[in-house]
Write a structure and sequence with these properties.
Helices cover about 55% and strands about 5% of the residues. The chain is mainly alpha-helical. The longest helix is centred in the middle third of the chain and has 35 residues.
Length: about 80
Amino acid sequence: SIKDSIKGALGIHSPSRWMRDMVGKNIVQGIIVGIDKEKSKLDQTMTDLVKTPSVQPVITGSNSQPVVQAKQNTSSNAV
């Protein structure tokens, strides 16, 4: 059969095991290398996304100390 001819020519006993060991493992190893190389960019992006917002004082109290007035978002975007 064609399958047996290909297996014999490539020296493969089990095509599924060969795909697992030669292709699947290499794909995962490549993904790991790619993530490791780009990790610093990912870390910086996540840091940028979750930066603590700065709050500016908007009024001065009776002792001339700044008083921070914060607005709380109470709206809902639920549909």
